[in-house]
Design goal:
This protein is mainly alpha-helical. It has a domain at about 35-95. The protein has 4 helices and 2 strands, in the order ββαααα. It has helices spanning about 55-65, 70-75, 80, 85-95; strands at about 35-40, 50-55. The chain has a two-stranded antiparallel ribbon. This is HNH endonuclease.
């Protein structure tokens, strides 16, 4: 078994690169954190190909409040989704939270 050398002779040769600016969430507009969920606004089962960056908690909220048919009708129009009072209340609540904030979301109403 080879020894792991803690000294990296090339560490000083590489210039430090700045991290790219955080991508804003498609639903709430907050910057995304360390985890970005690539969400299909129109579900793949309904022919959706476009993806948008979202927080996991924002995606869970959409899935809990809309059916695939409703998401297909809304398409890429986020304003139509925000017209739903439950989603609007969620977005207002999560606005001041940390980008990596997670919480349990109510399950889908069946």
């Amino acid at each position: 078994m080879a020894r792991k050398n803690k000294y990296d002779p090339y560490a000083d040769d590489e210039p430090e690169q700045e991290a790219p600016p955080p991508v804003p969430c498609w639903l709430c507009g907050r910057p995304t954190g360390s985890t970005i969920v690539w969400h299909h606004p129109v579900p793949k089962s309904r022919g959706g190909r476009d993806v948008v960056p979202m927080h996991g908690i924002c995606q869970q909220t959409l899935i809990a409040n809309f059916t695939n048919s409703e998401l297909q009708r809304a398409g890429l129009d986020v304003d139509q989704l925000l017209a739903n009072p439950t989603v609007r209340k969620f977005v207002d609540w999560v606005a001041n939270k940390d980008p990596d904030f997670t919480a349990t979301i109510a399950k889908k109403k069946r």
